[in-house]
Amino acid sequence: MPPLDVTQSRQEARQLFGAESVSYPASPAAFGGYARGCVAGAEQLPETGPTWQAMRLSRNRNWALPITLDYVQDLSREVAQTTSWNGVYVGDMSQPRGGPMLTGHRSHQSGLDIDIWMRPATNLNLTRAERETLSSISMRRANGAYVNDSWTEDHWRVLRAAASDPRVARIFVFPGAKVWMCDNETGDRSYLRNIRPWWGHHYHFHVRLSCPPGMPDCEDQAAPPPGDGCDQAREWVQNILNPPPPDPNAPPPQPRRELTLGDLPRQCAAILSP
Fold it and tell me: Which among 7, 49, 128, 248 has the fewest CB atoms less than 10 Å away?
């Protein structure tokens, strides 16, 4: 594969990948990592299924590797069978060829990330227009230190089912939800290791799958630390409730540079349209 010339390597990757409307026709493969990668052979999640609906269809972000589509459908069936929800509302997955997005996420680039809405999926007959305007529901209180009155045990069951799947590498959710689960779980706690606190995830939770077997160019992130992670989540909560004083010697934050095509794995240039 020939190297990129200087002009190509400096092109802003989000503009290139955001312009692609269909997947690259090839065997499914993820290249690079969740926040610096791309995907070939992605498939589109059907807009509506018996136990799911894809939301915000205008974004064209309901693409992913086949293993990710299988996960969504498996999870939605389990949710429909074990909770009061009829299934799940699926938010952003990936673009048709992955890569950086024009707006929003820094990850979701390799076809292995899924956002599941916190809003219970009670109506699976939403129109395209309704899916553009309907909003999810925030579950947080006190800036994420606690769950609010919209949180139910079914949210817990959904997250537990999502995190118990062996394909899962991590699930990101706001700290108060993780602590609630830590405090209320009386059975098998092993799934809690996969649930990690992260900012902003109170309207949806973010599922990240591990790299599938047979994809040597897919980059996993390091596994979560051993244990259930509950003490770390409680530290997050305490830092929300009692923020530590700012470090007077900390350098000012620098704006993040947008990724260029040269920042991505070399295969990513090859899967873009000429």
Answer: 248
